[in-house]
Amino acid sequence: MTFTPDQLEQFNGNLLYATVGIRIEKAGDGKAEALLSPPARVCWPFPGQPHGGVLFTIMDTTMAWAIQSVLAKGLSCTTIDLAIQYLAPAREGPFICRAETTHQTGRLAFVRADILDAQERPVASGQGTFRIIKMDFLPNS
Amino acid sequence: MTFTPDQLEQFNGNLLYATVGIRIEKAGDGKAEALLSPPARVCWPFPGQPHGGVLFTIMDTTMAWAIQSVLAKGLSCTTIDLAIQYLAPAREGPFICRAETTHQTGRLAFVRADILDAQERPVASGQGTFRIIKMDFLPNS
Amino acid sequence: MTFTPDQLEQFNGNLLYATVGIRIEKAGDGKAEALLSPPARVCWPFPGQPHGGVLFTIMDTTMAWAIQSVLAKGLSCTTIDLAIQYLAPAREGPFICRAETTHQTGRLAFVRADILDAQERPVASGQGTFRIIKMDFLPNS
Amino acid sequence: MTFTPDQLEQFNGNLLYATVGIRIEKAGDGKAEALLSPPARVCWPFPGQPHGGVLFTIMDTTMAWAIQSVLAKGLSCTTIDLAIQYLAPAREGPFICRAETTHQTGRLAFVRADILDAQERPVASGQGTFRIIKMDFLPNS
User: Fold this and answer.
1) Based on the number of CB atoms within 10 Å of its own CB, is B137 exposed (0-12), middle (13-18) or buried (19 or more)?
2) Of the candidates C12, C14, C21, which has an alpha carbon nearest to the alpha carbon of residue C49?
C-alpha cells in the first residue's frame, strides 16, 4: 500500500523520530523517503553533524517503510542485519534518505538506501536484510 | 592508552550519550566496554526496547573507544563502514556492549563488538572498519 | 580511463578467470560489467549453480574494475571489505554482474554491484569498500 | 552432530573444494575448521596469494559447516548474507579458517569466522547470516 500523508503523520509524531529529527515523507511501491533534521542533542562530537548512529537510524527506518509499503495487512518487518558505509562527512542538513526494496520473498526482504545532504551529495549508503513477520503494522523503526 | 575513570567521566557527560543512554565503562588495550540504559524517548516502536539504531549507536561508539585506546596522541578514528546483525529482541536492559580491535594498520582499524542483555544473552553482533585520522582526540562516537 | 576491448582481452586470459568462468565485458566511467559462465568445477553442491563464493568472486572483481576505470596511471585498488546478499538461487546462467562506484576519495572507493541471471532476475547484491594504492595496474581481482 | 573424519572425507572429495583447495578439518558443537591450500589457478593477481573470492569461499563454507554441525537431520542451511573484511595480504599459506555460530533461532543462524595464515596472523574476518531450510544434508558450501 502507498501510505497517505495522514497515515504518515500519525507515525511522524512518535517520540523516537522527534528525538532524532526524523520525518517520513513518502512510502509506496517498495520505496520510501525520509528527512533528517538533527537537533543538537544528536550532533556529537561535531556540532551540526549528526552522529553516525543517527544516520544509521534514519536509514534503518526508511528501509523498514519501503518494505512495509508493499506488505499485506497483518504483516510487518524487522531488521536482521544492515551494513552501512560512510562516504563523506554529514555537514549540511537537512539530509534525505531514500530506500528501495531490491528483492522480496515470503519471509525476507532485501533493501538498499542512500543518504544525501542538502546539496544532494552522497553521505552514506547501505544495504539491509529484513525478516517479514506476522504482526499488525507497527513499523519496527 | 588506557583511559582513567576521570577521563571517561568527561566524555560520559556529552549530550548524545545522555540522549541515548550510553555510558563508557572501560577503554584500554584495544578493547572497550559501554553500558546502555535507554530512556523511553529512544524505545520505539516497542516500549522498553531500544530502537535498532540505538543499539547501533552504542556499538559504533564502543568500537571507536576500543580503537582510540591504542592510538597515539594526535590521532583519532572515524567509521568507514559497519555491519550489524540483530540476533534477538533487546528486551531486558541495561545492555552491555563489548568491542575489540581485531587488526590495525597505519591507516585502518578493524573491530568487532557484541551487545548482551542484562542476562548476558546476545542481542546484536557487528564488525566495523575505521579510518585512523590525524586529529586531537575527539572520539567520533 | 575506459578500457578498450583489447586491453580487457589481455586480462580475460588470466588463470583465475578461466578457472571460475569470468569475463570482463566493459569497464569505464566508474562502471564495469562482467559475465559469469561457471564451469562444473565451481558448481557445488547444486549442479549447474555456481557456489556463493563464485558469485562473490565475480562481484569483487567487477567492483575492482569499476574503480580501476577511473584511477590515474600508477594507481590500483584492493578490497577492504565487502558485504554480499544472496537474493535468490543462481539457477540460470550465464550471469551478469554490474558494478558502479558510488563515491571516491583520495584513498577510498565505495562501490555497489548486482548480479542478475540470464532472465535479468536479481540473484545477488553487494556493497564494497576499497583502498586506493600506489601500484601499477594489476587489478586485484 | 559432530561429524566424524569419515563423514568429512566424503565431502572433502567434491570438485569445488578440489578446485579451490579447501579441506574441512573439524565440524561439531556449532564450530568448524577448514584448511585452504590454494593451487596456482586461484592465486591471481599475486602469485602464491589466493584471490579474495577464494578466501570468501572458504569462509562461507566453514560457516555453513559450523551451523550444519548443530542442525537436526533433514535440515540444512543457505547463506543469506555475509560481510568479509580483509585485514592483511594472504601471503603465507596454508590458511586456516575457524567459524563459530553466535546465535541460532528456528529459521536463522548467525556466524563469525576468522582466517589466519600459517603464522596464525589474521588475514580476514567475517560475519554471516544463514537461513535454515528443510533439506537433507548437502552443505550449501
Assistant:
1) middle
2) C21
C113 touches C57 (CB < 8 A): no
Which among D102, D112, D122 is the nearest to B103, CB-wise? D122
Q: How confident is the model at residue C10 (pLDDT cuts 50, 70, 90)?
A: confident
Taking the CA of residue D87 and the nearest CA in chain B, the distance in Å comes to: 6
User: Among positive and negative, which fits the CA dihedral A51, A52, A55, A56?
Assistant: negative
What grid cell was written down for D70? 548443530
Domain map of chain C by residue range? 5-134
Q: At B138, is the pLDDT very low, low, confident or very high (cuts 50, 70, 90)?
A: low
Test mutation, B79, B86, B103, chain D, max D CBs within 10 A: B103
d(CA B22, CA A24): 26
- Name the residue among A127, A132, A131 with its Cα closest to residue A113: A127
Note whether A27 and A65 are within 8 A (CB).
Answer: yes
How far D26 CA lies from chain A's nearest CA (Å)? Answer: 28
CB of B2 within 8 Å of any CB in chain A? no
Longest CA pairwise span in chain B (Å): 43
Each residue's pLDDT tens digit, B2-47: 899 888 998 898 999 999 999 999 999 999 999 999 999 999 999 9
> Which helix (H) or strand (E) segment is A100 a member of?
strand A95-104
> Residue D128, exposed/middle/buried by CB under 10 A (0-12, 13-18, 19+)?
buried
Minimal CA–CA distance to D41: which of C57, C83, C117, C36?
Answer: C57
In the predicted structure, residue D139 carries a pLDDT above the cut 90? no
Query: What's the whole-number mean pLDDT along residues A112-121?
Result: 98
Nearest 10 degrees: Cα torsion D37, C63, A129, C90: -70
Rounded distance, CA C127 to CA B82, Å?
12
Q: Which residues of A touch C85 (CB under 8 A)?
A: 102, 110, 127, 129
CB pairs under 8 A between A and D: 13
**Mean pLDDT of the region B89-111:** 97
When computed from its CA atoms, the radius of gyration of chain C, rounded to whole angstroms, is 14
ipTM for this prediction = 0.95
Which residues make Cβ contacts (< 8 Å) with residue B7, sequence separation at least 6?
none
Specify the amino acid at residue B56.
Answer: F
The residue of chain C nearest to residue D123, with distances taken between CA atoms, is: C80
Candidates B83, B110, B125; nearest CB to D102: B125
Question: Which residue type is seen at D138?
Answer: L
Q: Give how far C62 is from chain D: nearest CA, Å.
A: 12
Give exposure, B91-110, as e/b (b: 16+ Cβ within 10 Å). eebebbbbbbbbbbeeebbb
pTM: 0.96
Length of chain B: 141
The CATH code belonging to domain D5-134 is: 3.10.129.10
Nearest to C61 by CA among C78, C73, C74, C49: C78
